[in-house]
């Protein structure tokens, strides 16, 4: 892989030099032609034509060398540097590991807020020629989730990178990527230059048009080189990760690294849940007192809820747990991934027969001198860039976990449903037949929401996802030559036949799910009759289906206005901005009418908070220009996009509330239909939330879990 990467580097150098020589030759040729033209006919037009000819070459040359004048600096504002006098035990561990691995001590050691550990270094032109000392970064979110020996294994992995001579290859690739990126995407200043140049006169405008054509050709070539350069380096990077894992296993044994890799995905999910919670508290000017106590609280709550066992205060996470909802049979080798999957790393580590050494299962915090000070300092760093409407007040760990648990209760469904509705909604039943379905023969509730019923949901969702990915491959959106499905290797050309086969299975599952949902309705209709209630179940179904139809229309309007306003995040010529705003106004007519009709409904007013209501009022009260005096109006744009986001959130909130109202009523019917002594068996902790699923479930083959 190193040979491939070095070969790609030489390819880039060769292509770049070839482009430079061509640009220089073009500039000289255009200069000679311009000189000849002026010499033949000395006039104002001849001089302008000569200048235009010279511009063709010069603009192409400037495009190729403009990256030299671009300054790059590493942002360290989110990091805190520590020294030996600050954390002597940590530095002692680092010194021992450096000696054992046989590498250099880090240039500097930094602490960050997140769940991560990494090696980084200042990379520039001189770093390609001279040795560069590497820095070590340790995230406190990671420290918060591992034992001493697991931290030792993670740092040994990072020092494995310190010892890799192939890191030098990475430095070259990184710098060459910056050069290519600059020429492909970082062109604002260059575009401003050629716009001013083209506006001078018609001769120069023609020269600019020709130069733009040449530049596009250069960019096309560079995109091809970029692909070759990065595909080869990504392959090398994955092998470097395996190599660093093996170094760590030789230091501590493979067990500590395996257990930490599995738990860190879980810990990162918990950390993200805390950050998402505070993102929703910005308008209330609330921030965390200590984000790490709260991360630990979420980890503890979810682990106990999901039945994970603990060792030395840390939940033990298995690969089966992380992949419990993953039913995909599609395997695509991701050639653009810089890291191998956790599953592949665990498999490689499991093949190493190395005993655990110096096992210390105390919390990793035990080697830190002043953990509370560090936790508060990094928490303050994490929230330092947030702009609050008023001075922020802190939420303690106790207040946070109480609020978090209450939110879980509010946004989860009763465990009676066994996760059946976590990723799906009730299937549509014909409203004409709704009240006439016979409740005389009903299935047992254990079958309706049993393991097989839930598995059908997972199978359907993953089949649908696999079909979408295969369709994208068939249509050429993914550059994939081969893939595995259910252990069989296929070529991209076989997608159509496989999709037809999978669609048949998906349709069969859909029929089974719809039939089961009909049986669910029958079951609860019978229970409603047994409890002498009538009509409420049908009313809730009708109410839910009615909103489901309305929600589809609302989401179409949301998509239209979002797409119409997307140009505000792009570099756009001024005359085009005016046209885009005019197109946005026509879409806004429908959007504003929909917003007004929605917020005027009584049930919507009940769930609309004060800030959301004020934003809706501001947006509806005026017609904003968004752009005047040759610049965007940030306040008006903020009102627009806040309104768009609030509209989207409100649609989802109404949908969830109607679904939960129906399911809560069904759960109550089930409880009312059993003797009082059995009620406790039905009131169990709710199943895992979609939000937590999205945060902790690992991706497979570049797919996001449902």
UniProtKB/TrEMBL annotation:
Which keywords appear in this protein's UniProt record, sorted alphabetically?
Cell membrane, Hydrolase, Membrane, Metal-binding, Metalloprotease, Protease, Transmembrane, Transmembrane helix, Zinc
Q: Which residues form the signal peptide?
A: none
Name the cofactor(s): Zn(2+)
Q: Where do the TM regions start and end?
A: 7-38, 44-69
Q: Which CDD domains does this entry report, sorted A to Z? A: M48_Ste24p_like (cd07328)
Domain of life, per lineage: Bacteria
Which PROSITE patterns does its entry note? PROKAR_LIPOPROTEIN
Species of origin: Dyadobacter sandarakinus
Reply yes or no: does the keyword Signal apply. no
Q: What is this protein called?
A: M48 family metalloprotease
Among its keywords, does the record have Protease?
yes
The taxonomic lineage of its organism, from the top, reads: Bacteria, Pseudomonadati, Bacteroidota, Cytophagia, Cytophagales
- Cite the Peptidase M48 domain residue spans from the record: 87-351
